[in-house]
Amino acid sequence: MSPDLSGDDRKQPRYEFDRHTPEYRHQFEAITQEMQANCPLAWSDTHGGHWVAAGNREVFELARAAGYLSNDHDVHGERRGYQGITIPTPAEMQIQGGFLEMDPPGQREYRQALNPYLSPAAVARWLPVAAELVRACLDEKIGTGQIDFVDDLANIVPAVLTLAMMGIPLSHWSIYCEPAHASVYTPPDSPAMARVRDTQIAMFEDMYAQLLAIRASPRPGLIGALTQAEINGRRPDDMELLGVMLLLVGGGFDTTTALTAHALEWLSGHPAERDRLSRDRDTLLNSATEEFLRYFAPAPGDGRTIAQDCELAGVRFREGDRLWLSWAMANRDPAVFENPNDIDLARTGNRHYSFGLGIHRCIGSNMARMVFKQMVTGVLDRMPGYQCDPAGAEHYQTIGVIQGMRHLPATFPPGPRLGPGLDETIAAMQRACDGQRLAEPVTVRKAAAEVGL
Amino acid sequence: MHVTVDPERCQGHTLCAMIAPQMFELDEVDGHSSPVTGTVPAGQQDKVREAVRSCPEQAIAIS
């Protein structure tokens, strides 16, 4: 008798997979090796039951089968009830996560509206602003010999730049910073969650105020583009636009922070590699950045829903099945990456998936790379002998959503300040944004920012 | 050597232009790649091969 593939018999092989446990973080390499050797595409009963793609080939084939997969998060039950990219679906805060939780054509129309703000040419215009913000963050601490690379640098620069590109006043960065990070690292059942919710509400209120203000009195930036966008033949409602803004904040803040903190921590532990990166940055910085992306994969994966019965990567999927695509595990597959669990700053053939694959490739990837490089080279130039304090380094307890860090204190020989402090610099950058209309799309403004103070 | 970028596969990861900036140009608006010239000069062939190996979408072909 042949097995009944309509029921549970098709859900093979099985693997008990729970990426939300601390054990997954601590045993990441062993679990990855085990799944890739035995079940690179497995069924797990955890979190309501879902497939897990851990092998590089499987992730590649599935992620690019856009016609069979859906990112849709049908919050109001208007379509097929799909649950978007988070597994399990969060119990609270049911809001569609922007175009990352949409399918074409709406998803494509949003990206077409925002790409001119985030393309490589568009992002390159912001480099002088990023450099100036890095300079100011380091100046705040350079005389003291002590810095927390998360709190004092990597939380700040991506936040201020993201707001600048959106068209939000830069001084509001602190309204956004805590909820953007704390909502990721705080467990839902933690007593700290009530306070995180309060900060989230304050952020939503500011976002909504910005949306209304920009609609009433247009100014350049991503939000301005959203107020003008026509999606699926209509102007999206405010809740949908707030979901997009939340996606831009979520994508722009915690991920780049996570990458930078991990890279700086690793370089502290490998001073010879740090010296080599600093010395040979002209040839090594690009490949090193891709290697840190591959290895630390800040956004470790994405959920999908199977949109029609199909057979992919050797598995018979049924419409409605949930699927986890692990970029982080695919990045460690020895079939593609030699010595996958080693960091090789000069690695070649590094086709990592840390920005995702297919039509949902991270729209902020160019921004992430630029800001990361500015922060790391800024530290290498001004605090070249820094030493991280392992006792103070605090990693997120789980890596189910973001592989991040809460704190990374370090010491270094003090040096001279080069310019004004952070608040004064942020005010100067605001004047540059306003005076030069820096947040226009690249189709309107092509020149790089001028930030002479 | 002849190089092509499949515009249906390219998603604008930009690694090719990082590795072989003289051989790939990125669209100003969406960052998607196209070859500067179909024929690859001898001095650029190693870089183009490396771009092929590094493309996450496997969108670059050489013949």
Please, could you describe this protein's structure?
By secondary structure, chain A is of the alpha+beta class. Chain A has a single domain, classed as Cytochrome P450 (Cytochrome p450, Orthogonal Bundle), CATH 1.10.630. Helices cover 47% and strands 9% of the residues of chain A. Chain A contains 18 helices and twelve strands. In chain A, the strands form four sheets. Chain A has a five-stranded mixed beta sheet. A three-stranded antiparallel beta sheet of chain A has the order 4-12-9. In chain A, a hairpin with a 5-residue loop joins β1 (41-44) and β2. In chain A, α13 (254-269) packs parallel to α17 (365-382). Chain B is of the alpha+beta class. Chain B has one domain: Alpha-Beta Plaits (2-Layer Sandwich). Chain B has helices at 15-19, 45-54, and strands spanning 3-5, 24-26, 33-35, 60-62. In chain B, strands 1-4 form a two-stranded antiparallel ribbon. Chain B has a two-stranded antiparallel sheet with strand order 2-3. In chain B, β2 (24-26) and β3 (33-35) form a beta hairpin. The model of chain B has no long low-confidence stretch (mean pLDDT 97). Classes of the chains: A alpha+beta (453), B alpha+beta (63). The interface between A and B is medium-sized, with 27 and 22 residues.
Strands, helices and their partners?
The complex is a heterodimer of chains A (453) and B (63).
Chain A: H1 22-26, H2 28-38, E1 41-44, E2 50-53, H3 56-63, E3 69-70, H4 106-118, H5 120-124, H6 127-142, E4 146-148, H7 150-154, H8 156-166, H9 173-185, H10 193-216, H11 222-228, H12 238-252, H13 254-269, H14 271-279, H15 281-296, E5 301-306, E6 310-312, E7 315-317, E8 322-326, H16 327-330, H17 365-382, E9 387-388, E10 394-395, E11 405-407, E12 409-411, H18 422-436
Parallel strand pairs in A: 2-8
Antiparallel strand pairs in A: 1-2, 3-5, 4-12, 5-8, 6-7, 9-12, 10-11
Chain B: E1 3-5, H1 15-19, E2 24-26, E3 33-35, H2 45-54, E4 60-62
Antiparallel strand pairs in B: 1-4, 2-3
